[in-house]
Design brief:
This protein has 12 helices and 15 strands. It is an alpha/beta fold. The strands form 3 sheets. An 8-stranded parallel beta sheet has the order 8-7-6-5-4-3-10-9. Strands 11-12-13-14-15 form a 5-stranded mixed beta sheet. A two-stranded antiparallel ribbon has the order 1-2. α6 crosses α7.
């Protein structure tokens, strides 16, 4: 159980559902491109968005971006506390800082003062790659213990300034180190935790590392908001995040397409059809489980819990709902029939 804080209008912690967030990879100074990407992220289900603020021009761009979007906006700050203050003045809803590289206690205090003045949330972000030198020497490297001590020191320092509207992250690119650090920190504080595996990579590798690291922590009850860090289109981060939540029973959004691994009994092109179904129905927001099965052994039998599905047969396929066959369909019309029926279900 963690205390509740607010990032703009979004509650994080305090029993609220796990909040999915992401970060833009456009140049923040390109306002049109950044707004367009944020709109895509919102449509995919993103609830909080962060953007990089590497210089004054990026800090100034926050104002027109903030006016053009609906999501709470977090400014990601490193090295220069003045950029955090400028971002706060220009309408950011939150500031992400790493006290380990923001320039010491005095500069951290100035950022906290700005956050309090403008009613912003802070994220205290501790990363294995940017720990304080004294802790690296004490623990002989960026261990989980070093990360936890760094986080606790920063928590105490910010609390001492009378500020409590903040959450904490304590990330590493190593999955086991990340799990260990968050597990220890969660027993030492009740501030909300922003969970993720930093620099997870791209594609299959990044997805697997994020799913394991974030999934294990959420299964243990640790984590109030998550960001899946993948190289590439940030919309993919949102899709992976919701699949992680769905697999743990922590929330579902849009269609989940389950399909059999295929074998010698397969009567239809499962992968091709599954991709066509995803392309046709991926925009739906309501949760629905759709099965694409290669033969009548797997469907509807093994997929009887799916809301709706198709299965291949020797000459025709079948359309089924909750395990009950509702139509016999030619192979060439399977996708059409399935999509049509799903749309009817979504409208009802």
């Amino acid at each position: 159980q963690t205390r509740a804080i607010h990032v703009g209008s979004v509650q994080v912690g305090g029993g609220a559902p796990v909040v999915v967030q992401s970060m833009t990879n456009t140049h923040t100074t390109d306002v049109a491109a950044t707004v367009a990407q944020i709109d895509r992220l919102e449509k995919a289900g993103c609830k909080i968005v962060r953007l990089a603020v590497p210089d004054d021009k990026a800090a100034e761009a926050i104002s027109p971006i903030r006016q053009a979007i609906n999501l709470p906006l977090i400014a990601d700050i490193h090295f220069d506390h003045r950029l955090a203050i400028k971002a706060a003045k220009n309408g950011a809803d939150g500031l992400r800082i790493n006290p380990g590289n923001i320039g010491g206690a005095k500069n951290t205090a100035k950022v906290v003062e700005a956050a309090a003045k403008y009613g912003l949330c802070l994220r205290i972000g501790v990363n294995a790659g940017s720990l304080e030198k004294d802790l690296l020497a004490k623990y002989d490297g960026p261990t989980a213990d070093a990360m936890v001590e760094s986080a606790i020191n920063h928590i105490r320092a910010v609390e001492a300034l009378g500020f409590t509207n903040f959450k904490i992250s304590i990330k590493a690119s190593d999955v086991l180190k990340t799990i260990e650090a968050y597990t220890r920190l969660s027993s030492a504080t009740d501030f909300p935790l922003h969970v993720g595996v930093t620099e997870a990579g791209f594609g299959l590798c990044g997805t697997a590392k994020s799913a394991v690291g974030i999934g294990v922590l959420l299964f243990k009850g640790i984590g109030d908001t998550i960001r899946v860090s993948l190289s590439g289109d940030p919309v993919d981060e949102i899709r992976v995040a919701y699949q992680i939540l769905r697999s743990l029973g922590l929330g579902a959004r849009g269609p989940e397409i389950i399909s059999c691994p295929t074998c010698g009994r397969t009567q239809i092109e499962v992968v091709k059809i599954a991709k066509e179904v995803e392309a046709a129905l991926g925009h739906l927001e309501s949760p629905i489980t759709i099965a694409v099965m290669g033969c009548v052994v797997n469907g509807p039998g093994e997929a009887k819990e799916a809301d709706i599905g198709i299965a291949g047969g020797k000459s025709h396929g079948i359309l089924f709902k909750k395990g009950d066959r509702i139509a016999k369909v030619e192979h060439s019309r399977l996708v059409e029939a399935l999509v049509s029926e799903v749309k009817k279900m979504s409208l009802s």
